[in-house]
Design a protein that fits this description.
There is one protein chain. The protein is globular. The chain has 12 helices and no strands. By secondary structure, the protein is mainly alpha-helical. 76% of the residues lie in helices and 0% in strands. It has a single domain, classed as MetI-like fold (Orthogonal Bundle), CATH 1.10.3720.
Length: 284
């Protein structure tokens, strides 16, 4: 194989470095200029933390951050419950059309976000319009899209990601320990809480961290379903960037990138820990 030769290894290393440079150089520039003393991105005028300090006085950014955190936490909790239930149902039971159901469940993972966003917009418009007609709401007090629709949308697409991660833990799960617990008199509910959940906990935690990260920095789907009071931090950043590129936007973007990266690394670490734990137990 070419990768085993010195020249092949060098070529692989150079190509890999070029790919990573292409992907992450813009991010490095963004983070670097968040510490730039100049108000423009055209020149470097020295190191400063002023833009990070100004974030504390930016009420629009702070409000959008609070909305993003509320959406991320609530949608993560909902996605973890539904995603774990889906993973258990698909992994533990066999039924007619299971393959089709699995493809439908994982459709949000492979479908373009703009398709998901447009479909959710059409769905909420139909449902909200129907509710306004049933409740007799006038235009002044009519129900509109906002924070609830954003939360529901994030739960909808995050559930598939959680189910995908949890199924990896369930694939290496030894059912014999569940049967042992039931033989000792544990009810199915007690078996789940005392046996099943502790074993798959790294997968559940990994799915939760992944869902939190995806929810925190999602823009496309949120853009279609956000209404009054539902503007998240990515939506607010986009709105401000349409006017001008300000240094404090670089600062908040750097923080958002750092938090998302940390959540993804923790998710990967939790999943890897679960796989190592399953391998260390070995076959029953």
């Amino acid at each position: 194989m070419i990768a085993t030769r010195p020249g092949g290894r060098l070529a692989v290393g150079i190509s890999s470095a070029a790919v990573y440079l292409f992907l992450y150089l813009p991010v490095v520039v963004l983070v670097l200029f968040s510490f730039n003393g100049s108000r423009t991105a055209s020149r470097w005028e020295g190191f400063t933390l002023d833009w990070y300090r100004e974030l504390a006085d930016n009420t629009r950014i702070l409000q959008a951050t609070r909305v993003s955190l509320v959406v991320a936490v609530v949608s993560t909790l909902g996605a973890v419950v539904l995603g774990t239930m889906l993973a258990l149902g698909l992994e533990r039971h066999r039924f007619r059309g299971q393959g089709v159901v699995r493809q439908i469940v994982y459709l949000p993972v492979i479908a373009p976000e703009i398709v998901t966003g447009v479909s959710l917009l059409a769905f909420f418009s139909l449902v909200i319009g129907w509710l306004n007609d049933v409740l007799g709401r006038s235009a002044a007090d009519a129900l509109r899209m906002g924070l609830p629709t954003v939360v529901v949308s994030h739960i909808a697409f995050n559930t598939a990601f959680v189910a995908l991660v949890v199924r990896v833990s369930l694939a290496n799960f030894d059912r014999a320990i569940e049967e042992a617990g039931q033989d000792l008199g544990a009810s199915p509910w007690a078996t789940f809480w005392r046996v099943t959940l502790p074993v798959i906990a790294p997968g559940v935690l990994g799915g939760a961290l992944l869902a939190f990260s995806l929810s925190l920095d999602n823009f496309v789907i949120t853009f279609f379903v956000a209404g009054p009071g539902g503007a998240t931090l990515p939506i607010e950043i986009f709105g401000q960037l349409r006017r001008t590129i300000r240094p404090d936007i670089n600062a908040v973007s750097s923080i958002l990138f750092g938090v998302s990266t940390l959540a993804l690394l923790l998710a990967l670490g939790a999943q890897a820990a679960g796989e190592r734990r399953a391998r260390s137990r070995g076959p029953a």
